[in-house]
Automatic annotation (TrEMBL):
Name of the gene: LOC111113634
Lineage: Eukaryota, Metazoa, Spiralia, Lophotrochozoa, Mollusca
Predominant subcellular localization, coarse grouping: membrane
Basic and acidic residues composition bias: residue spans: 425-439, 467-514
Localization of this protein: Membrane
Name the UniProt record assigns to this protein: Uncharacterized protein LOC111113634
Keywords, in A-Z order: Disulfide bond, Glycoprotein, Immunoglobulin domain, Membrane, Transmembrane, Transmembrane helix
Gene Ontology annotations for the cellular component aspect, listed alphabetically: membrane
Keyword Membrane attached: yes
Region spans: Disordered: 413-514
Transmembrane segments: 325-347
Low complexity bias spans: 440-453
Domain Ig-like: residue ranges: 22-111
Species: Crassostrea virginica
Length: 514
């Protein structure tokens, strides 16, 4: 706001909203509303729709010719649509529409007219084979579907057939779609000379060719073949031909040496279809002669087809025996290989389990340094032997306590050698222990000196040598250590394998003389 000459003025910003009418251009030429554009089939078609507005409008380009469809739509002031090669199907009415909130829609329509030459509409659905009788009043009605724009003219329609100057009659009718038509013609068949091929031309351009055959004579089937697919059986097949205008069937006969005997009457599946016949069981190794005819209610084909087939022979007994022998031997070999593989797998698995078990057992023993074993010690025998051998001197005080601790010095050579034999009975081990103690005591008594297996150190502790070495007669390396004497622990003493017996010092000669 500002003042000027005692007046106040304000600047105001206006946002004007509007929606203009669409502007359409075809092939870069702007057209008037409701105008029509002429193009030829195969030409490029470029369509443009422009609508000004604020805010930006929505623009839609559509084709409305019985089958409404949207070609393109966008929120913009312009859209473009291109058809590289126009066809008759592109002809019709087009519409450009602009819409915006608060305004009524703006539209402009225009037409596209595509010029097309006359051509067959759908050659795959067109009937091209006809059957007819002959006579002065006999005519064959033929309806040919075509595409054309502009519509076909009757004066340009021409039929050419076996006879010249053919007196045909033709007319044109429109289908549901503007550019599709029917060319309807009536062709006379005065006698047998009028049967054959007929060619339709429009403005001397070929459109289609049809065939008119005699209705009372069906065509001879084609590709009549046969083969023996198994011992005693054959297979026959052929392709059906024109039925002559009436429903046809096939007669299959077999020559028995004197005459033809009918063996089958087979219906016609349709022209161009394959017909298959499989025989009943026949004599193996024998040759058979077959004949085929096509017939309708009027007559049969003028010609017949024949084929000779030799039935497969059964395999000989020796061949079957050889085959059975080969199959049996192969089966036996396969079974033997499977058994060997199975046994090998079991042995390998057992060996692996034993190896794993031994490793785990060795690791358990190695990881347990404080394993406690018990050695057989007969204290009464030890005291008796000591008295006899005069092992206890005046310097060693007497110990009558039965709970005195005795230590066994054991030299552990290997892990496996430290395991006591589990095969010996408990009684045998007790006897062996007693025997060893008695032998040690006897040896000490004979020498009159201290036994080497029992020594006393300065701590007044008696040490004995105990050998837990494995007996050589036992070869089982997997046996676990067994503690003997578990039933009566009073006769066993604790053995500490973590200690070594101290060196026994030699006594002075004076003390020995005393």
């Amino acid at each position: 706001m500002y003042e000027h000459n005692h007046r106040q003025k304000w600047n105001i910003s206006l946002d004007v909203q509007y929606l203009d009418n669409p502007v359409v251009s075809v092939n870069d030429e702007v057209g008037k509303p409701h105008y029509e554009v002429q193009i030829r089939e195969g030409d490029e078609l470029r369509l443009s729709c422009y609508v000004r507005g604020n805010p930006v409008p929505n623009i839609t380009l559509s084709k409305d010719n019985g089958d409404f469809r949207i070609l393109q739509s966008n929120r913009s002031d312009r859209i473009n649509h291109t058809i590289d090669s126009s066809q008759c199907s592109d002809m019709g009415t087009y519409k450009c529409t602009g819409t915006s909130a608060g305004f009524t829609k703006r539209e402009q329509t225009f037409g596209i007219n595509v010029t097309c030459k006359v051509r067959i509409d759908n050659p795959f659905t067109m009937k091209t084979l006809y059957g007819s009788k002959s006579g002065q009043d006999v005519k064959v009605i033929v309806a040919v579907p075509v595409i054309a724009n502009p519509p076909p003219q009757k004066s340009f329609i021409t039929w050419f057939g076996p006879m010249t100057n053919l007196p045909f009659i033709s007319n044109v009718s429109q289908q549901d779609i503007p550019y599709k038509y029917w060319i309807n013609s009536s062709l006379p068949i005065f006698d047998q000379s009028y049967f054959g091929n007929y060619n339709l031309k429009y403005n001397m351009t070929d459109v289609i060719t049809i065939t008119i055959n005699a209705e009372d004579v069906p065509q001879v089937p084609s590709n009549f073949t046969g083969y023996s697919y198994a011992s005693g059986y054959i297979n026959l097949r052929w392709v059906s031909g024109f039925d002559g205008g009436k429903p046809q069937y096939f007669i299959l006969s077999k020559n028995d040496g004197l005459e033809w005997v009918e063996v089958a009457n087979i219906s016609d599946p349709g022209e161009g279809k394959v017909v298959i016949f499989e025989s009943k069981r026949l004599n193996a190794g024998q040759q058979y002669w077959y004949q085929l005819k096509s017939c309708n209610i009027i007559n049969c084909s003028k010609e017949s087809l024949e084929v000779k087939i030799t039935v497969k022979a059964e395999p000989t007994q020796s061949f079957l025996q050889n085959k059975t022998f080969v199959v049996g031997v192969s089966s036996a070999v396969v079974i033997l290989l499977l058994i060997i593989a199975f046994v090998s797998i079991i042995l390998k698995r057992k060996t692996a389990l034993n190896r794993q078990y031994n490793q785990q057992e060795g690791e358990e023993i190695a990881d347990q340094p404080d394993v406690v074993l018990y050695a057989v010690v007969d204290k009464s025998a030890l005291i008796e032997n000591q008295n006899k051998a005069d092992l206890v001197t005046e310097d060693v005080p007497e110990k009558n306590d039965d709970s005195d601790t005795l230590y066994a010095v054991v030299e552990k050579k290997t892990t496996t050698e430290a395991k006591p034999s589990a095969t010996k009975t408990e009684s045998e081990q007790k006897n062996n222990s007693k025997k060893e103690r008695q032998e040690g005591a006897t040896a000490a008594e004979a020498t009159g000196a201290s036994a080497t297996s029992r020594n006393m150190n300065q701590d007044e502790l008696i040490y004995i040598d105990v050998d837990f070495a494995k007996k050589p007669e036992n070869q089982d390396k997997n046996e676990k250590p067994k503690i003997h004497g578990e039933e009566d622990r009073t006769e066993y003493t604790f053995v500490d394998f973590s200690k070594k017996a101290p060196v026994v010092k030699e006594k002075p000669k004076k003390e020995e003389e005393k």
